[in-house]
Each structure stands twice: as structure tokens, then as C-alpha cells.
Amino acid sequence: xxxxxxxxxxxxxxxxxxxxxxxxxxxxxxxxxxxxxxxxxxxxxxxxxxxxxxxxxxxxxxxxxxxxxxxxxxxxxxxxxxxxxxxxxxxxxxxxxxxxxxxxxxxxxxxxxxxxxxxxxxxxx
Length: 125
Hints:
Elements: H1 33-45, H2 48-68, H3 70-73, E1 76-78, E2 81-82, H4 83-120
Antiparallel strand pairs: 1-2
Helix pairs in contact: 1-4, 2-4
């Protein structure tokens, strides 16, 4: 087999073709199950990465500040609320907001595509 050739001669490689993503426009539907699944994967994971990076960044900031600046994290803001506790609560709120956003995003953008793929595949499960 030569470099770049697929094991199936009639199979198009969606990674190397321009416009192979079947869900970029509904009127230009491509009947390629591999491209369909790759497009669904990209739609499911694409916007998640920046949100995950933001939440992980907040976690790492909180952990680094706790390790390197304990006197700053122990400063009292109001009553018994310290900077460290406020940072931990902010991290919990950011995580809850990210999970809620992802659930709404999937319901609006991923689930309809998944249902369309199921209908197109013949109603498998």
C-alpha cells in the first residue's frame, strides 16, 4: 500500500479532503459514515477544550497560590471567609457552570446531529 492510500479504494479520507465535514451545511450532505462520526466528534469536543482549560487553569492557580503564598490565601475577607476559601468556592462555581454549559451545548448542538445520524443509519439503537 502506498503512502496516503486507504485500505478501501472507494473510501475518501476526510482528513485530507477540503469540505469533507458533512455537517458544515445541511444542503451539501456527504454520505460517508467515517466523515459523519469525525464531524460529530469535532462538534462534541471542539468548544469543550477552552472551557476545560479555563477551569483547570483556575484550579492550578488556586493550588499554586496555596502552596506558594499561604499567608495570602489565609487572609480574611469577611468574617471567616478567607481568600483560599473564596477561591475554592469560585472553583466549585466555575466547575458547576462549565458542566451546565456543556449539557446545554450538547442538547442544542450535538444531540440533534446524533439523532440525524441514527435516522440516517437506519435507526440503530
